[in-house]
């Protein structure tokens, strides 16, 4: 166990793997930081007033969280999604959970827009032909006038909608609350309407949080409802999609293609069929990670830590019933 700063309280446990957040020294004398690995986490949680989940890919928090007795009063996750830390004991323990909403909105929107353009313009085939020294002339698709359905209308979904609109797509949304007039989506439909909307979209983009309602929402029936020429993009959470059903749909050519940046198991195992399934672009959970993103995460946490130490309202407070930060 490694400590930073002096013995002053409160104590903030920091779950990390290979790197540690910057800027902690600025809080010397006001907080004590205890840097812990997954193995050290259970013991640290019993003595910590707050927990920073810097290693946001870790799934160690639910198993380590104390069922009874002392536990942190505040948990901050250095990611937009908080499904990896939520568990019954934490939800019921009067804990405040915050996330890093706002850091990834524009980078992920840029990544999704890049994927849509790359798939429409056949870039994977172009690169494959170049590697084979094969002159493969063909015509490509235009994105102007095509339709996109963005599932998840939080800040990331909204940034995606604005950027896809800017390159000419017609965008509608699916979210928790139905709205007939929306600044970014035009129309937002409720989640129950999703099956009936899939057949109208050229691109279906998943930007929803992982909840009981959204888990497995893109299954064989949903994929069968999509257009044969449609494409699926998932930058939300891996379990939003039933992997075996997607593999079957792509192998049979029932949809034109897909791009996944998130998976049920990460890193993606070498023997996963997703590596070789036709029409699929695989990226290693990097859609929001631009140069300097760790500094942005650290700055957001530092601002919230200042607020917490001053007993002021925190940014990005998660509704533990919903599993995400409500908008509006």
Automatic annotation (TrEMBL):
<protein>
    <submittedName>
        <fullName>2-hydroxyacid dehydrogenase</fullName>
    </submittedName>
</protein>
<dbReference type="InterPro" id="IPR006139">
    <property type="entry name" value="D-isomer_2_OHA_DH_cat_dom"/>
</dbReference>
<dbReference type="InterPro" id="IPR029753">
    <property type="entry name" value="D-isomer_DH_CS"/>
</dbReference>
<keyword id="KW-0520">NAD</keyword>
<dbReference type="Pfam" id="PF02826">
    <property type="entry name" value="2-Hacid_dh_C"/>
</dbReference>
<feature type="domain" description="D-isomer specific 2-hydroxyacid dehydrogenase NAD-binding">
    <location>
        <begin position="114"/>
        <end position="287"/>
    </location>
</feature>
<dbReference type="GO" id="GO:0016616">
    <property type="term" value="F:oxidoreductase activity, acting on the CH-OH group of donors, NAD or NADP as acceptor"/>
</dbReference>
<keyword id="KW-0560">Oxidoreductase</keyword>
<dbReference type="Pfam" id="PF00389">
    <property type="entry name" value="2-Hacid_dh"/>
</dbReference>
<comment type="similarity">
    <text>Belongs to the D-isomer specific 2-hydroxyacid dehydrogenase family.</text>
</comment>
<dbReference type="InterPro" id="IPR036291">
    <property type="entry name" value="NAD(P)-bd_dom_sf"/>
</dbReference>
<dbReference type="GO" id="GO:0051287">
    <property type="term" value="F:NAD binding"/>
</dbReference>
<dbReference type="InterPro" id="IPR006140">
    <property type="entry name" value="D-isomer_DH_NAD-bd"/>
</dbReference>
<feature type="domain" description="D-isomer specific 2-hydroxyacid dehydrogenase catalytic">
    <location>
        <begin position="37"/>
        <end position="318"/>
    </location>
</feature>
């Amino acid at each position: 166990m490694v400590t930073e700063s002096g013995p002053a309280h409160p104590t903030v446990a920091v779950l990390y793997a290979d790197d540690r957040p910057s800027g902690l020294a600025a809080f010397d004398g006001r907080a004590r930081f205890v840097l812990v690995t997954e193995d050290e986490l259970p013991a640290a949680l019993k003595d910590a007033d707050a927990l920073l989940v810097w290693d946001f890919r870790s799934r160690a928090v639910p198993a380590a969280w104390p069922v009874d007795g002392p536990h942190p009063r505040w948990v901050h996750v250095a990611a937009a999604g908080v499904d990896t830390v939520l568990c019954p004991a934490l939800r019921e323990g009067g804990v405040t959970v915050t996330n890093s909403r706002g850091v990834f909105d524009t980078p992920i929107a840029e990544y999704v827009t890049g994927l849509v353009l790359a798939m429409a313009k056949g870039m994977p085939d172009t690169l494959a032909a170049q590697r084979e020294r094969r002159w493969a002339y063909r015509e490509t698709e235009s994105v102007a006038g095509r339709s996109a359905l963005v599932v998840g209308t939080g800040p990331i979904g909204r940034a995606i909608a604005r950027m896809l609109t800017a390159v000419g797509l017609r965008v509608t949304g699916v979210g928790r609350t139905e709205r007939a007039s929306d600044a970014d989506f035009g129309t937002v439909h409720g989640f129950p309407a999703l099956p009936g909307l899939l057949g109208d979209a050229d691109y279906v983009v998943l930007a929803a949080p992982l909840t009981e309602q959204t888990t497995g929402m893109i299954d064989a029936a949903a994929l069968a409802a999509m257009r044969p020429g449609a494409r699926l993009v998932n930058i939300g959470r891996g379990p939003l999609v039933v992997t075996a059903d997607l593999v079957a749909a792509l192998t049979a050519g029932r949809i034109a293609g897909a791009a996944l940046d998130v998976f049920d198991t990460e890193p993606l195992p070498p023997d996963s069929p997703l590596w070789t399934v036709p029409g699929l672009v695989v990226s290693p959970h990097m859609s929001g990670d631009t140069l300097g993103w760790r500094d942005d995460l650290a700055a957001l946490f530092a601002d919230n830590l200042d607020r917490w130490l001053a007993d002021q309202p925190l940014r990005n407070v998660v509704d533990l019933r919903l599993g995400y930060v409500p908008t509006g």
